[in-house]
Amino acid sequence: MSQETPCVAVCIIDPRTKLCFGCGRTLPEIARWHAMESAERLAVMALLPARMAEAGLQPIAPAPKRT
């Protein structure tokens, strides 16, 4: 089963690009994520690396999980 969310729990929106530093999604995408069909989520996820690169943003890595 594939992960169907790019969320890394770093939810900070870049004021210039309006993209999340953690995942690259826009606020409207984040808001409707759970209402999207699986195919739509996967299509958005496929665009995120290029979207982040074009915006000149480096994703913020998630914090290490506590054990």
Fold blueprint:
Blueprint lengths: L26 H6 L5 H18 L12
Would you write up a description of this structure?
With 67 residues, this protein is mainly α. The chain has a domain at 11-56. Helices cover 36% and strands 0% of the residues. It is built from 2 helices and no strands. It has helices spanning 27-32, 38-55. The protein is globular. The model has no long low-confidence stretch (mean pLDDT 89).
Give a quick set of tags describing it.
67 residues; mainly alpha; 2 helices; 0% strand
Number of helices: 2
- Gap between N and C termini: 24 Å
Low-confidence stretches: none
Helix content estimate: 25-40%
Q: Compute the average pLDDT.
A: 89
Overall 3D geometry?
globular
Beta strand count: 0
Strand coverage percent: under 5%
Going by helix content, strand content and strand pairing, the class is: mainly alpha
Written as H for each helix and E for each strand, in order along the chain, the element string is HH
Largest sheet entry: none
- How many whole angstroms does the radius of gyration measure? 12 Å
What is the compact description of this entry?
The chain has 67 residues and is mainly α. Helix content is 36%, strand content 0%.
